[in-house]
Amino acid sequence: MSRLAVVCGGSRGIGRAVSHLLAQRGCRLAVVSRNKDAARTAVASLHGEDHIALSCDVSKEEEVQKTFETIQKTSGNISYLVNTAGINRDALLLRTKQEEMVALLHTNLLGAMLTCRAALRSMLRTEGAAIVNIGSVVGLKGNAGQCAYSASKSGLEGFTRSLAKEVASRHIRVNLVAPGFIRTDMTAGMKDADGASSIPLGRFGEPEDVAQAVLFLLESPYITGQVLVVDGGLQLAM
Ligand code: NDP
């Protein structure tokens, strides 16, 4: 039986590229996003068969619990979990409302904690199980205008390292990929002039650049609790 990979936030952007790459590697995919039609469309474009699309808001405990029960019932035990579901709201702290802070923390940090917790029992039953969370270089370096977003991503780094320690004895690995500027809906408002000149490699990243790093960490049996930066050298200049 091929490996089952759950990609939360797999309908668009980085998650969609990860889903494509994993399907090409022969995995069965469970693609999760709030918009079920978008998840279905993403699944329809995947290589291979037996993929499923599910609608779930990762920040809602009950929805996450039910979704992972459905995944297990429909598709079996989970080998890989990739947490790419995320939102961004750029604003100076003085102009950030509490509900915006809560939304960022709930989706980007709590969401990953809830999906990991919901997946762990199932992952205990598969060999070579691995989780990759998607952080951000701004979670490592900080960025003016992104206090709440970077707090959520720094939190995700701490969570990743702690969970890696917690489940290492059960042979589940947990790592984090920290992208720089990647060309997706999230950065659609940014022009090359806004950022590309500050990137040593001279271009924004593509979702596929991040997907390769995710695949590497999922398939590397002796790496856990690590952060892999995929940013064209951006953090060297930060
Ligand atoms: P996109 O906006 O292109 O895609 C986000 C995905 O997450 C969509 O599938 C969206 O589907 C899903 N999603 C958002 N909120 C929720 C939720 N509450 N529950 C379930 N799914 C949700 O973003 P990117 O691909 O650019 O970003 C992916 C990850 O990478 C994010 O965590 C982001 O913070 C991180 N990142 C991105 C960078 C970039 O430059 N693009 C840089 C650094 C990090 P739907 O709306 O249907 O729910």
UniProtKB/TrEMBL annotation:
Keyword vocabulary terms for this entry: Fatty acid biosynthesis, Fatty acid metabolism, Lipid biosynthesis, Lipid metabolism, Oxidoreductase
Any Gene Ontology biological process: fatty acid biosynthetic process
Database matches in SUPFAM superfamilies: NAD(P)-binding Rossmann-fold domains
Pathway: Lipid metabolism; fatty acid biosynthesis
Every Ketoreductase domain range: 3-185
Superkingdom assignment: Eukaryota
Gene Ontology molecular function: oxidoreductase activity, acting on the CH-OH group of donors, NAD or NADP as acceptor; quinone binding
Annotated signal sequence range: none
Matches recorded under Pfam families: adh_short_C2 (PF13561)
PANTHER family recorded: 3-OXOACYL-[ACYL-CARRIER-PROTEIN] REDUCTASE (PTHR42760:SF133), SHORT-CHAIN DEHYDROGENASES/REDUCTASES FAMILY MEMBER (PTHR42760)
Family: Belongs to the short-chain dehydrogenases/reductases (SDR) family.
Protein name, as recorded: 3-ketoacyl-[acyl-carrier-protein] reductase beta subunit
Organism in which the protein naturally occurs: Takifugu rubripes (Japanese pufferfish)
